[in-house]
Task: structure prediction
Amino acid sequence: MLTPARRTITRPLLFEGRTLHLGEHGAVVLMPAEAGAGWTLNGWSRAAWEHDDNAPLATSVVTPSGRVSTVEHLWAALALADIDDVHVTVDGPEVPILDGSAWEFLRALEASTCDSGPVTARSPWQSDWAGVAFEAGPAYVSARPRTDSQWPLLEVASSWPGVAGGRLVVDLSEAGTRSRLARARTFGLVSTLPRLRAAGRALGADSTCCIGLTDAGEALPETPLRFDAEPLWHKALDLLGDLAWLPSPRAVCVTALDAGHTANGRLVQALLDRVGAT
Result:
């Protein structure tokens, strides 16, 4: 069976705005890349990135030229748009949050996607590896190969207010699922905001980019949900953004219960150790 052609973008794409945690202006530029380039960040290939496990509120990677934070929504959008080759340049230490989802990234990517060159064959990810499963504090995560699709199958659940008791299975091979996932915004408890800001976090969080939740898990009137269980969908979006740190495509079934970026990152490293980065 023929593998799909590799994909890049047709033109430069610029995104800029306030960052979520530092509250500063940030900008990111995406540039077309040649077939086989993969994703580069500030001039460095994925082989040079290192996941930062000390950033539980966002996905951060360390490159030889410095640390870049809050990459998960952009990474998820690149995965959802099925991009293989792209050069990413982030101006500053954090990717702008935009509307708190991956939607603006994905819309622009889908409008400017093309084959990346004559070297079109993708290297399929081997499917003969054993599953990975472990506990990380209150979190449980597991992964196993998916043989019926090149899109991930994500199962998430959480006991956190606003998503407590919820369980969601997201099959990214189903029509309409990718756009819904991309539109799910980040969220947080309003009561925790003073503590986070005192610690120098969430300085850019407001109603334009975050769903504010009460301690009972109800959305504030100024940040109504776009659809049912939007916070749980956002947990799945964050999970995809963390999995996108792996070389793509990734045919995998993942379960993440009460997991955050730290547990997701440990799962990614376990998969790299088990399957390899090629």
